[in-house]
Amino acid sequence: MNGAERDGVRPPWLSRWTEHHARVMFTTLGRLWREPLSTLFTAAVIGITLALPAGLHVLVQNVRAISYSWEESLQASLFLKDSTSPEQGRALTQTLQRRPGVARAGYISREQSLAEFRELSGFGQALDLLQDNPLPAVIVITPRRELTREQLQQLMNEFSALPEVEIAKLDQKWLERLYAILAIVERVVYVIAALLALAVMVTVGNTIRLDIENRREEIMVMKLIGAPNSFIRRPFLYTGVWYGLLGGLIAWLLLYGALQALTGPALRLASLYESTHSLTGLSPASSLLMPGVGILLGILGSAWAVGRHLVKHEPS
Amino acid sequence: MTDIVHFHRLSYRYGDSPDVLTDVSFRLGQGEMAFITGHSGAGKSTLLRLVALLSRPTRGQVVVNGINLSTLPRRRVPEFRQQIGIVFQSFNLLNDRTVHDNVALPLVIRGYRHQDIGRRVRAALDSVGLLGKEKMLPLMLSGGEQQRVGIARAIVTKPALLIADEPTGNLDPQMARDVMQVFERFHQAGVSVLVATHAIDLIRRMPHRILHLDHGRISQDSPSGFQDTAG
């Protein structure tokens, strides 16, 4: 029997546990605080590494949002056959207007097309030389925004099949392509994020490994006087947590700063395009996510280092 | 009186080399104090390592404080080590921490309350005559004082058994005498003490049992150091 156990002065395990964790938390923080430069360097490396994929993610989100706002101008033009009379054209417009998936349908007669063309093109006098009006009547369709790409395609197929319609053409094919590119970029961002998460873990792991090497004697002495492995492990894990948290905060600051710096120019650019779109920043949720991810990676990195290197230092 | 340490026909060797200890049997009673002597390489340190479970016996059994060390699972080793106090030749203090923090470490490991720790650390330092040096770093102290810090750390948890491997090996004679007197005091307070040393002159004047090791065997077990142990 241990004398100390007989005294019965040890507090119950829960309060022992919390007190011990609080103690380790603050001593590890204090230790990092006393070496501000090296702590800051490590945290900055982690921060930059985390900020990179997060920044790319924000970029993709913004491009997506901008292109979505352009989607409002997404229109389909149904060029009618010359054999279709204006009455038939108007009637078809009415019918299409009521179709699900169509937000607006407008009829532009051959004469209106001609007038518009004359006004905008500057070829007015050349047109006067022509005997017939070469322009077809057009029904301009604005599809509903909530349509998926497949539904939109199906709608276009149906329009093409209409007997009055010569050609159905969806504007802004480029938008489709942009979406396709964005989808790829998004995947690339995920891959980069995964690789950089690994880099963060390796950074923390290596820092902790050096820490373990530097404190070999201390670890040995602790084992000699009966410290369980969990006790020896804990300060290193907390150090990893602090690095991760600091790195996450630095990443957030970097991203916040970058967004602040870009907001002005972005608004100017948007105004040039007569858009009111402003940069989508970090939501509170993703702001919390960054330190959270930092902490998680910090724990994993330090746990990896501790698992590999702590067992080596058995007292001999 | 129950035994605090019991070696039963114990042998130990490193790998394939010859036995370091051969067929060693002895008992240390509860509250008893004994010295282990012998030349360098006679197996003194190994014997203490076996008590502290820093090594496991090749053959035979060691029972310490009622625990059979041969069958103790690895994960329970820290818990066992907490029951004994160990003093080292090279002090093994953490030089970047104050005297107070060094002595407090075993209590921190056991999860004592903060106020409790302060009280016990002061009591332990008082018992080795170092009260008032809590805030100092180990390297600011003399060798003898550092070793007394080591002893304070070993006894702060009030272990039933105190073991020491060449505790005076790095000390000059005056300091060595002081340190031995500290062990003596703890023995008188009821702690079982086992000290490995080659400072024969020092211990012969003390009224304690001496186990003499020669080439890994106990060659002499004298009940009192007053006898002449020179073989």
What does this structure look like?
The complex is a heterodimer of chains A (316) and B (231). Chain A is an alpha+beta fold and 316 residues long. Chain A folds into two domains: 17-69 and 177-309, no CATH class; 75-171, 2-Layer Sandwich (Alpha-Beta Plaits). Helices cover 72% and strands 8% of the residues of chain A. Chain A contains eleven helices and four strands. Chain A has a four-stranded antiparallel β-sheet. The longest helix of chain A is centred in the C-terminal third of the chain and has 44 residues, at 229-272. Chain A is rod-shaped. The model of chain A is unreliable at 1-7 (pLDDT under 50). By secondary structure, chain B is α/β, with parallel strands linked by helices. Chain B is built from seven helices and ten strands. In chain B, the strands form two sheets. In chain B, strands 6-7-8-3-9-10 form a six-stranded mixed β-sheet, sandwiched between helices. In chain B, helix 3 crosses helix 4 (114-127) and helix 3 packs parallel to helix 5. Chain B is globular and about 45 Å long.
Low-confidence stretches of chain B: 227-231
Profile the largest sheet of chain A.
4 strands, antiparallel
Can you give the mean pLDDT of chain A?
Answer: 84
What's the helix-strand series of chain B? EEEHEEHEHHHEHEHEE
The percent range for strand residues of chain A is 5-15%
Radius of gyration of chain B: 17 Å
In angstroms, what is the radius of gyration of chain A? 33 Å
Shape of chain A: rod-shaped
Kindly report the spatial arrangement of strands forming the biggest sheet of chain A: 2-3-1-4
| Through-space gap between termini of chain A | 27 Å
- How much of the residues of chain B is beta strand, in percent? 25-35%
Average pLDDT level of chain B: 88
Q: Please report the number of helical segments of chain B.
A: 7
Quaternary class:
heterodimer
Distance between the termini of chain B: 31 Å
- Secondary-structure-based class of chain B equals alpha/beta
Q: Count of helical segments of chain A? A: 11
Give the % helix of chain B: 25-40%
Biggest sheet: strand arrangement of chain B: 6-7-8-3-9-10
Uncertain runs of chain A with pLDDT below 50, 5 residues or more?
1-7
